[in-house]
Amino acid sequence: MSRKPIRARRAPEVARAHILAAAETLLAQGGVDAVQMRAVARLAGITDAGVAHHFVDRHGLLTALIAYGGDKLRAMIDTTVRDWLENEPDIGALLANLAGLYRQGYSALAVALHAAGWREAGSPVLEKVVEALHAARLAAGVAAPDILDTRLAVAAFHHALATDPLFGTEFRRSAGISGARDDGAALQLAWWTGVMKQVLGIS
Fold this sequence. Notes:
By secondary structure, the protein is mostly helical. The chain is 74% helix and 0% strand.
């Protein structure tokens, strides 16, 4: 008589991470609408009830997913800033990393949750970027740089990169720039890199 294999029970934090990874995959493939409880459960290889056990409902899952993306963003920023401290500040690498994360579907997710009343809590996600860029301005010999200017510059490029996957093609078309979505986004990213260097006085 054969026995069914006993399925090992994951620790709750491991199970949550597994489900969120599946949700992130669906987000990248099909946007916010693709992140449904049943679809996530199927991709994660668990039951619908298993997803509901950890996140209650779809809103809970989406809220956890954007926090998951925020954690990835913070980890990426920590790595970037650490590289800056060891080498030279690379604004282009920072912007490329931010743009890449938002192109994975997090732009649409952030907009959808914001419209539903979600607001980010905790310390500013780009505070370390502000500090690192401001230190780089001082090191570059910018005369008495105002940290408010640094904060406004960071807020401006963050806003642009976060909304580019949703509206960038249309806004570029309104200015007479046509072509493939990826080509336009690459042009915009290169432009922002040059502008940030010029505005902040960092070569």
